[in-house]
Design goal:
Helices cover 69% and strands 0% of the residues. It is built from 12 helices and no strands. It starts with a helix and ends with a helix. Keywords: Membrane, Transmembrane, Transmembrane helix. This is Lytic transglycosylase domain-containing protein.
Length: 286
């Protein structure tokens, strides 16, 4: 009898424990369903309300974070400890020993020198077009003029390719493996990255990505004899045949960027002439 009571008691405790576990599972499941409903509702609201979506994704705090990340990469402040936390380096062919997004060799952009009037107008135009903070775009514009001069490629062509390829997102990635501002394929152009910084490179490094992209378009333009044909090669039409209108899109954007530069320069020239005229008038009256 005592033995029976003992077994009954133990079985009773097991039943209570099982009931408790089931209750906990039901509670967790209920919370999960409620959370899923709330998330789905929030997503639905964002998808149906363009104005709210714009306010959320292009709000000042979000853009500030984006600008800070680009600034860190552009000025080299991330050189000491930034690591690629996913397997991008392995999948894209980046050397396994390379962990810094910004090798020391590519960590300096002189931001002390003010942009020209034309460059400021370009920055303003691109920031509005791609809904990216002007501070972030300014870093990329500075970089394009630096790289363009050194790699002998028009800076506005570089900026146009960046716009079409990544919409000014330095962390952009495509399903086929293209990475960064100019959507360079690390597996295909590993030799160019290695030539820039042997054993220590990343396709997400803005300057390295832009340098390799500039080298590619310069090489393709030389091979084909024109920028238009070089752009067809850049987008892979040399292999696939169909360029999807890519050269026209890039060159149309380049034309708009060139116009923005000219507009900025023209306004600055008028302002300078007005200042000179005012000084001359003041001098004659004195």
């Amino acid at each position: 009898m005592k033995q029976y009571e003992t077994v009954l008691s133990v079985n009773g405790q097991q039943v209570q424990s099982q009931n408790l576990l089931q209750s906990l599972k039901h509670a967790v499941t209920g919370l999960g369903v409620a959370t899923s409903v709330l998330v789905a509702g929030a997503v639905a609201i964002l998808l149906s309300n363009a104005e709210l979506r714009s306010q959320v994704f292009f709000s000042a705090p979000v853009q500030a974070i984006f600008a800070t990340e680009i600034d860190l990469l552009s000025t080299g402040l991330a050189a000491g400890g930034a690591e690629v936390v996913n397997n991008t380096s392995k999948a894209s062919g980046t050397p396994s020993g390379s962990k810094n997004l910004m090798p020391v060799k590519f960590n300096s952009i002189d931001s002390s020198k003010p942009l020209t009037a034309g460059q400021r107008q370009i920055t303003s135009y691109l920031a509005k077009r791609y809904s990216v903070s002007p501070e972030a775009v300014e870093s990329i514009v500075r970089l394009a003029y630096k790289v363009g001069k050194e790699e002998k490629v028009e800076p506005t062509l570089i900026l146009a390719i960046v716009g079409i390829e990544s919409s000014y997102n330095p962390f952009a990635a495509s399903p086929v493996g293209a990475r960064g501002l100019m959507q360079v394929m690390p597996k295909i152009h590993k030799d160019k990255f290695e030539a820039l910084s042997p054993g220590d490179w990343s396709p997400l490094n803005p300057e390295m990505n832009m340098r390799v992209g500039a080298k590619i378009i310069r090489e393709y333009t030389r091979r084909t004899g024109s920028v238009h044909a070089g752009l067809r090669w850049y987008v892979g039409a040399a292999i696939h045949g169909n360029d999807g209108g890519y050269p026209g899109k890039v060159l149309a954007l380049k034309s708009r960027i060139d116009s923005a530069y000219q507009q900025g320069s023209l306004v600055a020239s008028r302002e300078n002439n007005q200042k000179v005229s005012a000084v001359s008038v003041a001098g004659s009256e004195g």
